[in-house]
Amino acid sequence: MGRLTPESSRRASTAVGVWAYTAERYAMTRGCTLTERPTELEGSGQGWEQHLVFCQDGSHMRVQCRYGDCTAHH
User: Fold this and answer.
1) What's this model's pTM, rounded to 2 decimal places?
2) Beta carbons of 65 and 23 less than 8 angstroms apart
3) Which domain holds residue 62?
């Protein structure tokens, strides 16, 4: 049986969210080139999620999605 490393444990416990893919695509339309760092789910509620998307230029974009319709929050 495989053994979990701290890195794989961290990844396994990171919440993704239903609209993470949509949030990333939204960020890309705003000029963000995605990194290997996974998008983080910062919060969620009934019908909404807030994600932190990381860009290659070192910046990040906070994206809130409501029922799959995303906007940026600075």
Assistant:
1) 0.77
2) yes
3) 16-73
